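Please go through the sequence line and token line underneath and see whether the fold suits the sequence. See right below:
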Amino acid sequence: MCCEPKHHHSRHHHAHTPIFGGCCCPPRRFLTKEEQIEKLERYKKELEKELAALREHLEELKK
């Protein structure tokens, strides 16, 4: 999907790019069911990584 950022950059980083904030196409309003599931699965994995990192950080602070 060309419209999704590959990294977690905020939109203002691409403000200098004239067409659609640095993307090749305008933002889509609707996603297929399959695309929605894929997007939510990626989000779930990121949340799981964040939770694991949080647990590690808490354990370090407790030492």
